[in-house]
Structures are given as structure tokens and as C-alpha cells.
Design a protein that fits this description.
By secondary structure, the protein is α+β, with helices and mostly antiparallel strands. Helix content is 47%, strand content 16%.
């Protein structure tokens, strides 16, 4: 078994931000999970619409956070996608031979150690930290310990044609140094999150699927939620929505984690302290929405008013988030386009 020596696996709230934190600590950089989440512009909202289905799915965090983190910090890195499995495996394991962990982007439905009904859409992020001829050892922030999967299982998880398609994607550090100022990186990450939520078309990132983005997507989610009593299977979208809000057990659509980002990174960038407190309040509102959706799932015959109540809460959240993200954008300067 070839393994990355001295790599410390620790679990966390967000799979991608935890992977970044663990990799950063391995290379000797002092980033918390909250800092990684904020620098990567992690707090977003994407609504995926399914033409062949009568419901929608959503993500409450970005699909590009890991790449953005390395771009912002100026850490030399390589991001690859589209190789066939054998080539990707050979290249990734060669990095393990050189004691470099490899960040993988995977389909959570294909990972047997995760719940049967995964809590979020792809990509799920884990770090390859060891391998032998037949197995891969993963550091997955959703789990307390490292996980071992067969090479065949990894092959299925590494490329898929789901709602968010994957094609053997991986990211590695090519030189262990930082070139960008930490304050600039923090400001850029928070600014991108704010811009994306307010004016998503100004952020040139790939949401990886058809649908809506930013605050318009959040408001549409509330509108959809209010119509679900009329669906033949209303429990199905409710269950999926609750899982997305409760991803990895945080129960707040990652707004609690983003509140921590605003607290930590706000000190570097001069943001008003109350923004963190306000976002923490939004996190509590998201927890209330998750509770209301749980009540619907437990009811034998939920009344349409239960859905309307949850939809109203989402509408209130959208208003509060808009005010917070506008304040971030105002305090950090002009909105910029990002490539």
C-alpha cells in the first residue's frame, strides 16, 4: 500500500472545504475550514430543473469552490478532467507516490460508505491519500475515519451522467507555496459569493447543469415548494430538499459555516462584525425550514398550509440573504466578473 505520509484526516461540515483544510494543513498552511469555504466563494444557491420530472433539486454551496480557493491563494496546482479512467488513475497514483494528496470529485451515490440516500448532489469531494493495485484510500470529510473503496467502485464514482455530470476530475498541488496576499484572497472569495447570489450572470463559473442560480434560484425554490402538495409524490422532493439543507448534519444550508467565514475573514477585510451575526440568524431560519419539512414527512396527510408555511420561510430567508450579500458587495467594493 502506497500512502501519503503524515497526512492527518479530520472530518468537517462541508466535504470540499474540509478537503481543502486537510490538504492545506498537510502542506503547512494555516487555513480553517471556514476560511477555505469563504475564500472559495462557497456560499451559493443553484436550483437544478429536471425536464423529465415534476420536481427540482438544489445545492447550497458552489461547484467550483475548490478550484477557486487555489486560484485565489495563488497556489500552483493542476486541475484535470476528461481523461479515461486508467490514465486518470495512473496520473493520480503517481502523485501519491510523490507524497502529494489528490483531491477527487465524485458521485456520492456510488460511494457505499455514505448513506443510501446521499445528502447532496455531485460533486462530492474526497482526497485520495493511498492506494494499492485493487483499492483506493480516501480521506472524506463526511466520515470520522479514512475509507477504503475498491478500484472498480472508484471508477464508477469518478465518472457519471447524473444531474451534475462528472468526468474523472482531480486537482493536485504542483508546488507547495502561496503567492497571493491572504487579505486579497479573502476579499475576492467573499465578493464572488455576494456577486453570484445577487447577479449570478456576472460570475463566469460552471454550475454544471441546467437551472437557476443565486437569489433568483432561492426564490424559485420557495415558489416550487408551495406547489408540491399538488404533485403525485410530494414526499420525494420534500425529502430531497431536507437532505440538501441538512447536508453533512449542519442543518443550515451551510449558512452557519458561512457565518464563521464572515467572522474570520471579515476581520481581515474590514467587514462589519454584525454581518456574521446576521448570517448566523439566517442559518437558524434554514434549520427551521428543515424542521418544517421534517414535520411534513412525518405527517400522514400534510395540509397544503404546511407547505405554504415552509415556502414563506424560504421567501423570508431570500430577503435576509439579499440584504447581507448586498452589504458584503457594498463594503468590499465594485462587483467584478470572474473567469
Amino acid at each position: 500500500m502506497e500512502t501519503v505520509e503524515n497526512y492527518d484526516h479530520q472530518s468537517g461540515v462541508h466535504c470540499g472545504a474540509t478537503a481543502l483544510r486537510n490538504v492545506a494543513r498537510y502542506y503547512g498552511w494555516n487555513y480553517s475550514e471556514a476560511a477555505c469555504f469563504g475564500i472559495g466563494g462557497g456560499a451559493t444557491f443553484v436550483l437544478y430543473e429536471h425536464p423529465e420530472k415534476q420536481w427540482v433539486s438544489f445545492r447550497a454551496s458552489s461547484t467550483w469552490m475548490e478550484r477557486a480557493f487555489f486560484e485565489r491563494t495563488g497556489i500552483p496546482h493542476s486541475y484535470q478532467r476528461g481523461e479515461d479512467f486508467d490514465s486518470a488513475w495512473e496520473n493520480a497514483t503517481a502523485r501519491i507516490d510523490d507524497d502529494d494528496p489528490v483531491i477527487l470529485f465524485l458521485d456520492p451515490t456510488k460511494l457505499p460508505y455514505l448513506p443510501e440516500e446521499p445528502t447532496h448532489l455531485a460533486p462530492h469531494v474526497a482526497v485520495l491519500v493511498g492506494y494499492d493495485e485493487e483499492t483506493a484510500h480516501l480521506s472524506d470529510g463526511a466520515m470520522e475515519t479514512r475509507q477504503e473503496v475498491s478500484r472498480e467502485t472508484l471508477k464508477k464514482a469518478w465518472a457519471s451522467d447524473g444531474v451534475v455530470p462528472l468526468d474523472n476530475e482531480y486537482l493536485t498541488v504542483t508546488r507547495a507555496r502561496r503567492t497571493e496576499d491572504g487579505t486579497d484572497a479573502a476579499a475576492a472569495g467573499l465578493r464572488e459569493a455576494a456577486t453570484y447570489m445577487i447577479e449570478p450572470l456576472h460570475v463566469k463559473r460552471d454550475a454544471r447543469g441546467p437551472g437557476q442560480e443565486g437569489l433568483p434560484a432561492l426564490r424559485s425554490f420557495g415558489d416550487y415548494l408551495g406547489t408540491w402538495p399538488d404533485l403525485p409524490e410530494p414526499y420525494r422532493p420534500v425529502r430531497a430538499a431536507r437532505r440538501s439543507i441538512d447536508e453533512h448534519g449542519e442543518g443550515a444550508a451551510f449558512r452557519g459555516l458561512f457565518a464563521e467565514s464572515l467572522e474570520e475573514l471579515g476581520q481581515r477585510t474590514g467587514l462589519a462584525h454584525d454581518l456574521s451575526d446576521r448570517m448566523a440568524g439566517v442559518a437558524e431560519e434554514w434549520r427551521t425550514v428543515a424542521e418544517r419539512l421534517g414535520d411534513i414527512l412525518e405527517a400522514e396527510d400534510p395540509h397544503p398550509s404546511h407547505f405554504e408555511e415552509a415556502a414563506g420561510l424560504v421567501g423570508d430567508i431570500a430577503e435576509r440573504e439579499e440584504a447581507i450579500f448586498e452589504a458584503i458587495a457594498d463594503e468590499l467594493g465594485d462587483v467584478e466578473d470572474y473567469e
